[in-house]
């Protein structure tokens, strides 16, 4: 079980690296006016989105394995797991929202400012803080 947990943490950390960095690329894309730089940033964003999508899959599978296979978070007194699963669902939604935003940039349809993306960039940070507190502290 410890290997499953270790690899789950590695894939979660790797996925979050993408969730933290891709919106920073969006900030730069929203500010950029030079077409050649825009194309380079779009290429970086596309590659990062594909890579972080691949990282998300084993992170979720290993998390399900810990929950369903080893029973972590099951039974009475494990309400924290339900809250954590809600965070996971929100993170998957955030991940897909990043894909949708990327498509808008690719099609030249972005209407949001770099300031909006700076706030958007903070969402996964807040979700990670809540998830870690839920898993470590197990407040309910």
Automatic annotation (TrEMBL):
Task: Give the way it sits in the membrane.
Answer: Multi-pass membrane protein
Co-factor binding comment: Binds 1 heme b (iron(II)-protoporphyrin IX) group per subunit.
The protein's Enzyme Commission number = 1.3.99.-
Keyword Chaperone assigned: no
Name of this chain's protein? Protoporphyrinogen IX oxidase
Record's catalysed reaction(s):
protoporphyrinogen IX + 3 A = protoporphyrin IX + 3 AH2
Q: State the signal peptide span.
A: none
Give the source species.
Undibacterium flavidum
What cofactor is needed?
heme b
Top-level division of the source organism's lineage: Bacteria
Cite the binding residues for heme.
8, 84
Q: In which pathway does it act?
A: Porphyrin-containing compound metabolism; protoporphyrin-IX biosynthesis; protoporphyrin-IX from protoporphyrinogen-IX: step 1/1
Annotated InterPro entries: HemJ-like
Which stretches are transmembrane? 6-27, 48-68, 80-98, 119-137
Compartment(s): Cell membrane
Q: Keyword set for this entry?
A: Cell membrane, Heme, Iron, Membrane, Metal-binding, Oxidoreductase, Transmembrane, Transmembrane helix
């Amino acid at each position: 079980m410890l290997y499953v947990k270790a690899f789950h943490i590695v894939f979660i950390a790797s996925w979050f690296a993408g969730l933290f960095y891709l919106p920073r690329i969006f900030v730069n894309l929203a500010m950029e006016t030079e077409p050649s730089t825009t194309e380079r940033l779009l290429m970086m964003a596309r590659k990062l989105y594909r890579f972080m999508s691949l990282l998300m899959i084993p992170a979720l599978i290993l998390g399900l394995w810990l929950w369903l296979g080893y029973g972590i978070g099951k039974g009475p007194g494990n309400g924290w797991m339900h809250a954590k699963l809600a965070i996971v669902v929100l993170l998957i939604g955030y991940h897909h929202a990043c894909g949708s935003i990327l498509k808008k940039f690719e099609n030249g349809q972005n209407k949001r400012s770099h300031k909006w993306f700076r706030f958007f960039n903070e969402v996964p940070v807040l979700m990670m803080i809540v998830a870690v507190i839920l898993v470590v502290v197990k407040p309910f």
